[in-house]
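agent: user wants the structure for Alpha-1,4 glucan phosphorylase from Acidisoma cellulosilyticum. delegating to structure tool.
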Amino acid sequence: MDDLADKSLSPDREPLDLAAMPDVDQLATLFAQNLLFDSVIDPSQAGLRQVFEAAAGSVRDLLSERWVQTERQYDSANPKRIYYMSLEFLIGRSLANNVFNLMVEPVLEQAIRDKALNWIDLIEQEPDAGLGNGGLGRLAACFLDSMAAMQLPAMGYGLRYEYGMFKQSIENGWQREQADNWLRNQDPWEVRRPQDIVEVKLGCSFVMNHGRLELIPNRPSSLVGVPYDRPVVGYGNKTINTLRLWSATSHDDFDFREFSSGDFVSALIGKIAAHTVTRVLYPDDSTEMGQGLRFAQEYFLVACSLADLVRRFRRGNSDWALLPEKCAIQLNDTHPTLAVPELMRILLDEAGLGWDQAWDLTKRTLAYTNHTLLPEALEKWSLHHFQTMLPRQLEIIYEINHRFLDDVRARFPGDEAKVQRVSLIEEGAEDKVRMANLAIVGSHSTNGVAAIHSELLRKLTVHDLAEIFPERFSNKTNGVTHRRWLALANPNLASAISTVIGTGWLTDLTAIAGLRSVADDQHVQDLFLAAKSAAKQDFAGWLLRTSGQSVDPETIFDCQVKRIHEYKRQMLNALRVIVLYNRLRANPDMAMVPRTFFFAGKAAPAYQRAKLIIKFINNLAGTIDGDPAVKGRLKIVFLPEYCVSLAERLIPAADVSNQISTAGFEASGTSNMKFMMNGALTLGTRDGATIEMAQEAGEENFFLFGLTVDEVEASRGYYDPHWHYENEPEIRAALDLIASGHFSENEKGAFTPLLDSLLKEGDRYMHLADLSAYMRADEALCANYADRRAWARKAILNIAGSGQFSSDRTIAQYASEIWQVKPCPVA
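agent: tool returned. relaying tokens verbatim.
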């Protein structure tokens, strides 16, 4: 992979000023002051939560001056700034990450020890912020980290959800959802900015009717966006960027006149209805009301953020023509696509510009990242929602579409089929706006997030638009912040790496390639094996302490942790385990390396098939646990409530990373990168970024299997899963065992829908086509694991090959090729 990063995007950092670092006594003083003045409590009487808040408050005190100075620097230098809009930011916990990036870890940990406190117990008091759900939100968080580390003038814009998507528990094998009230306690990191509120005008009103939110059309109303800022700490420098999150409320928040007149209910209803807009991440959109609320969330994010960034732009620039020279707005997936008509509305109606100039400025300012190849996942919004909430924006979309289709007809005369395919409006029983088409037409850049994904995006998903705008399409393979996912999450391995090649990899992960030359060194292999063993022991201890589940760290830790979805094929993994289980039942004396299979991930509440897969995995786990023939040799653990904090514990301990999506369905993947840089070997298909990872580490150090993208496409219309059932005995035996009720003794027929999806419904994601190849790759993996030094060598080469998968590299490419933004170091 070519390193396209401009060297100017990695400026030399000043050496760490140890004299400016707080000492233990200073930090202890801050800590005591925070306990006394914020919690108003005698430090000797403080509970763990109060101690955490005081520690976090002390860290925020340390960074506050840099935070203010960063914004002052941006205002005075007036550089081009990046505004990253995303409906999700899966930031996890902040205390340890901020301490690490500030480089005050030794001081704070010493201060904690002096007070006879446990650092781990303290960290556990902070909930994972309920601001995201999956890879999309975690990518956004990694990107913010990299932008601050690279001293780029950047700001993230999102929503301040009062509740996360949900907290997951498992009851009788089933996923159960509970409210994720992550803001139950005060968040010590956020700063409310009431002076920067934004009014958002809608063409309808929200009301509460018997506890349900309803829309009243033709009754214009306003929401108020209140910003809450969170610091984004640059590693080893003085940059503190901002993540600004918007919370919705009503215009006056409370109607005192109605309350005083005795109409208590009416006085509160407006406030409650407005707050509902940012009450929960991803409301259930299986109902029309849920869809309306989701639509309102997306517009609220866009309207608040654009108003705010335009206000910032106008503080230092009087000429609207400079907008693309000073603002780079990145749309993270289609969720913020309403920025296209909203920015046009601002430029037309508020700035008074003509159409042609407004359209030119809009396109040059906006850029779009696509994250999916699944047609059903490309957002489309009913015209009804636009007509009800955003009639002016709909007028603008109609005009954009009219002019665009005139151009298409001129370029492709007589090709009305193409015109219909690229139109921003999808006509049918219910006309809808195609948000991906709007994002592509209304921006100057569309990028995919892995080489194969970008190629398929151009060739298949939006082929006609790519033909019309070939210059707008590019690839930016995703990355992850190695500082959090390796240095912070896996200190034993990080220390070993620094011992061998120095610490330069912390700011330039390409330096980790230095491990290639020592992969055969037995001392280096011993360092790796010791670090992996320590991580496995730590995870096993934590799991026993927190859940009562016992796992053997001497077994292979074989992991598949990600959102539960049929195309990600957790069911394929479960079938693999059943085949292994059948082999042991048929031949109890056969040699088999003991395995522990870890699954984790959430299913969307309305996605019944995915929830049934979770149930099946848990039943399978219970059956295997209860069978003495396999005890100690096979074990399945489903880890509930998968989140950043759990991933930070499990990924360093993993030996095997399953990346087994049907080829051509995964856009990129980022968990694959985290596993790779922590020395887990990949058992996977040639899909997403796994292809590029194998190129970097060498395919001989991966365990790849299954149909390729071309083979999957070629099989459409011909694939018959029954052939595999009839001709491959192990597949037939596995499916027959499920059908017999072996895993559902008291729940007859519970898993019939899963069998039907594989045999009667055509096996859309081709589980059976890939299962035998999966088993062969699995056998090769186990044979390699038996030779610990050979395994260590492969793992070290994987770590050495992970240098291209830092989000620093990704952001450097965005900055130089899409945004044209340079660093703005803080003095």
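agent: one observation worth passing along. Residues 1-19, 258-268 have pLDDT under 50 and may be disordered.
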